[in-house]
């Protein structure tokens, strides 16, 4: 009798908890059974969605030089690209001699492994937070250069992206004291010493 009541109590407790905070629900619904919100659960910073190409806003061109390293290393061979001579380099605006001309990733075949990001030496590709690209069309997620750059730009804006090769330098710069404040601090100490003398 006592065991049955105990079991009933546990079942009731689980039911109430489930109503208050459901364990499973229809995507993208969040919230409780009484207050449903049609917004997907936000992803974490480390989340790896589909790859996107990054944009160098200093020079107004993609970071990608079309070097093909990512394409050679992609385990599913879902990427292709062509490069061209960079007109901006010839005009003296960019240091990139070659630049990407066309790029395509068949995201239906991408397994989100991140190898393309790991092997890229030019900060040109990132695993973005995009993950909702389902279509009813076979190969409906073949993304060309402009679309991949859009993915990348959105990721850069949303996360305050800093190129991976610049991150160490930025940390060092943040740690170094500001020379202007240092000089003014020294000057005020000297002034105080003079006043006391
Ligand atoms: S994304 Fe990186 S590795 Fe791939 S082609 Fe562009 S520069 Fe080369
Ligand atoms: S994440 Fe992996 S499978 Fe997808 S494009 Fe990059 S290397 Fe290829």
Written description of the protein model:
The protein is an alpha+beta fold and 197 residues long. The chain has 2 domains: 2-37; 51-162, Alpha-Beta Plaits, CATH 3.30.70.3270. It is built from 7 helices and 9 strands; from the N terminus they run αβββββαβαβαββααα. A 3-stranded antiparallel β-sheet has the order 6-7-9. A two-stranded antiparallel sheet has the order 1-2. Bound molecules: iron/sulfur cluster (SF4) (2 copies). The site of one iron/sulfur cluster has 14 residues, from helix 4.
Q: What does this entry show, briefly?
A:
40% of the residues lie in helices and 16% in strands. It has 197 residues and is α+β, with helices and mostly antiparallel strands.
Oligomeric form? single chain
Q: Let me know the largest β-sheet.
A: 3 strands, antiparallel
Termini separation: 92 Å
Average pLDDT works out at 86
How does CATH name the architecture of the largest domain?
A: 2-Layer Sandwich
- What is the CATH topology of the largest domain? Alpha-Beta Plaits
Give the ordered list of helices and strands.
HEEEEEHEHEHEEHHH
Q: Can you identify the CATH class of the largest domain? A: Alpha Beta
Count all strands and give the number: 9
Ranges where pLDDT stays below 50 over 5 or more residues in a row are 180-185
Shape: elongated
Strand arrangement in the largest pleated sheet: 6-7-9
- Which compounds are bound in this model? iron/sulfur cluster
Number of helices: 7
Query: Could you say how many structural domains there are in total?
Result: 2
């Amino acid at each position: 009798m006592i065991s049955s009541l105990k079991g009933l109590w546990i079942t009731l407790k689980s039911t109430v908890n489930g109503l208050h905070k459901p364990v499973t629900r229809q995507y993208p619904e969040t919230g409780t059974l009484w207050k449903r919100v049609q917004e997907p659960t936000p992803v974490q910073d480390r989340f790896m969605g589909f790859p996107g190409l990054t944009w160098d806003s200093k020079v107004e061109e993609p970071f990608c030089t079309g070097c093909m390293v990512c394409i050679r290393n992609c385990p599913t061979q879902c990427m292709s690209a062509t490069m061209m001579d960079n007109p901006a380099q010839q005009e003296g605006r960019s240091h990139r001699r070659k630049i990407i001309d066309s790029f395509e990733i068949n995201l239906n075949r991408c397994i989100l492994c991140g190898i393309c990001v790991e092997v890229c030496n030019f900060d040109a590709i990132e695993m973005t937070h995009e993950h909702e690209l389902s279509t009813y069309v076979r190969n409906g997620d073949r993304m060309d250069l402009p679309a991949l750059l859009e993915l990348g730009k959105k990721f850069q804006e949303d996360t305050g992206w800093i190129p991976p090769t610049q991150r160490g330098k930025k940390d060092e710069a943040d740690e170094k004291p500001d020379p202007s404040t240092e000089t003014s601090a020294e000057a005020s100490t000297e002034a105080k010493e003079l006043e006391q003398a």
